Amino acid sequence: MYDVIVIGGGPAGMAAAIKAKQNGSKTLIIEREKKLGGILKQCIHDGFGLIKFKKQLTGPEYAQRYTELVNELKIETMVNTYVSNLKVNGDFFEITIVNRKGIKVLFSKALVLANGCRERSVKQIFIDGTRPSGVFTAGTAQYLVNRKGYLPCKNCIILGSGDIGLIMARRLKLEGANVLGVYEVKNSPSGLTRNIIQCLDDYNIPLYLSKTISTIHGKNRVIGVDIVSVDENLKEIPNTKEYISCDGVILSVGLIPENENAESLNVSISKNTKGPIVDQNLMTSIPGVFSCGNALHVNDLVDYVSESGEIAGLNASKYAFSHYENFDEFLNLEFNDNDFLYVVPQKLKINFNENTIIYFRVKEEIENCVVRILYDNKCIYEKKYNKVKPPEMERIILKNIKLDITKSISLNLGKE
Amino acid sequence: MIKEITCISCPNGCEMSVEVVENKIIRVENNKCERGISFANEEIFNPQRMLCSTVKTSDPKNLRLPVRTDKVIPKNKIFEAMKCINNIVINKNIQMGEKIIENLLGLGVSIIASQSLKINSNNV
Q: Which CATH superfamily is domain A121-253 in?
C-alpha cells in the first residue's frame, strides 16, 4: 500500500512527489514515457524558471532540477508504465498499471493526477478537405524536430498563435523551413507577448489576425490551403478566400487538460477549465484525489505548474496520514462568465488556515482595471492592473480568512 | 524619436516607450524594473538573443541533444551560429552544461549541452 501515487512524471508530478516524500509519505511516480520530465524534454527553448529560479532555463534544464531531487530522495518511479484503470475501494484506491512486466494492481491512500494536457487536433476544428499527410499539431512537430531530428515540412503555415505555434514558427525557421505566416482566428494573439517578439518579429514571420483555414488541399501530401477572413463572431466573411501553397500545416489551436482517468473516478469537471473542480488544497470532488499542473488547467508558466504540484503533493501526503474533513464545507468562488474565462480553485473551504493562491484568466484584454474579491458584499482584496489579457494567466494571494457558509464570495473585474 | 519596445527579460513583458535622440537613449518609460533599462539599451543599438537548438548524436536511442548558447549573441549572427551547430555530431557521453563549441564565431560565447547524454552502444 502506497501513501501517495502520482500519475505523471512531468514538472507537476515530480514537484508533487517530492513534497509528498519530504513529508514522509511512501510515494510512487508512474510515468508512461521512458524518462521523467514530461513535455519539458522536447521544450528545448529557454524561458523556464524565471519566477522559481530567477533564471531563463531550457525545458530540459528545468526538468533536471527536479529529476535530480527525485533521485536524491530515492522516490520510487515506474517508467514505461501506463495507468489503465482507477477505482475507489472504500478508504483507498486501486490503480491498474500496464508495462513490460504485465498488468498489476497497486493500492494507495491518495492519488495525484498530474497527467498534463493534450493538443486540440485538426478533427476538432472542422477544417474541410482531404486528409493528406503534412498536417501536424505544433507539439508533434516539436517532438519530430527536437527529439527525432526530422524537418516535418519545408514551406508551412501555422494555424493559431498560441505559444507552441509561435515557438515552432521560430524553431522551423531556424532549421531551414520557410514559415509563410501565422494565422489567428481571433482578433488578438493567443500567446505571450514576449513570444510574439522573439519568435515572429525577430524572424519577420507575419501574423495575420481574424483569419483561419477553411480547406486543406492535397491528395497524399498537403499542397495548399484556403485562408478566409472571419468576423468578430468568428464566422467566415464571404469572398475573402485566398489560396496559399504550402507543404505543411502546423496547428496550435488549443490545449485540453487530460482527464479521462479523473472522469473514470467520477471526479467533477469544470466546464471552464476542462479540469477537475478543486478546493484550495487542490483536492477534487473525490476525497483523496488531487489534481495539479496542466491536468487541472492549462498554464503558461511551468513555475506555476510546479507550485500547483507542490500544493497537491503535500496535501495528498497529509490526507494519506489522516483523512481530513471532506469537500462539503465550502463556498463557491463565484465569478462572471463575461469577465473571466476561469478561476481556480473553484471551491473555498470555510475553515482554511493558510493563504489561498488563486489563478485566473480574463475573457478579454482590458487596460487599467481592478480585480477585487468581495465577501459578504465587502471588498477584502484588491489589485490594480495596467493590462490583463486572456493568454496571460494571473495569480493572486488571498490572505487567510474564515468564511461563513451563509455568505457569498466572488472575484470581480472592474474598470479603474 | 520614440520607439515602442516590449521587454522580454521576464514574463511581465513591459511595453516600454524609449526616446532616442542623436543615437542616445534619453528616456525609458513604463518599465517595472532596472532590467528594462539595460534591455532597452541593447535592443535599440545591438539586439542580443539566446539561441537554443539541438545537435545530432550517434546514439540511435537519443538522436538529438538539446544545446544552447551560454550567453546572448547578436541577433544578426543567429543563422551563422546555426550553421556551426548543424555541423556537430556527438559521439561521447556529455554532462549537462558541458561545452560543445567553444568561442562560437569568435564571440566569446559557448554552445553548451542543455541535457546530459549517455550514449547507448548496445541495441537494448
A: FAD/NAD(P)-binding domain (3.50.50.60)
Q: Give the 3-state secondary structure of residue A180.
A: strand
Question: With an 8 Å Cβ cutoff, are A46 and B56 in contact?
Answer: no
CATH number of A330-416: 2.60.40
Beta bridge partners, A209, equal A184
- Give the number of other Cβ atoms within 10 Å of residue A124's Cβ: 12
| Residues of B with Cβ-Cβ distance to A193 under 8 angstroms | 6, 13, 15
List of residues 6+ apart from A161 with CB closer than 8 A: A182, A184, A189, A190, A191, A196, A207, A252
- What is the C-alpha to C-alpha distance for residues A276 and A92, in angstroms, rounded to an integer? 19
Q: Which residue has the cell 541593447?
A: B42
**Residue A197 and residue B50: Cβ atoms within 8 Å?**
no
Strand-pair category, A356-362 with A340-344: antiparallel
Long-range contact pairs involving A204-208 (C-beta distance under 8 Å, separation at least 24): A205/A169, A205/A170, A205/A173, A205/A179, A205/A181, A206/A181, A206/A182, A207/A161, A207/A181, A207/A182, A208/A181, A208/A182, A208/A183, A208/A184
Q: Is B53 close to A148, i.e. CB distance below 8 A?
A: no
C-alpha of A31 from chain center:
17
A23: its cell numbers: 513529508
Can you tell me the ipTM of this complex? Answer: 0.91
Which candidate in A39, A52, A197 is best for mutational testing of the B interface (most B CBs within 10 A)? A197
The fold of the A1-119+254-327 domain, in CATH, is FAD/NAD(P)-binding domain (3.50.50)
Report the predicted TM-score, pTM, of the whole model to 2 decimal places. Answer: 0.93
Per-residue pLDDT tens over the stretch B10-57: 777 888 999 999 888 888 988 888 889 999 999 998 999 999 999 999
Q: At a CB cut-off of 8 Å and minimum separation 6, what does A210 contact?
A: A184, A185, A186, A187, A229, A230, A231
Inform me whether the C-beta atom of residue B99 falls under 8 Å from chain A C-beta atoms: no
Read off the pLDDT of residues A177-217 as tens digits, 9 standing for 90 and up.
Answer: 999 999 999 998 988 888 999 999 999 999 999 999 999 99
List the beta bridge partners of residue A412: A372
Residue A51 burial by Cβ neighbours in a 10 Å radius (0-12, 13-18, 19+): middle
Which one of A46, A193, A387 has the shortest CB-CB distance to B68?
Answer: A46
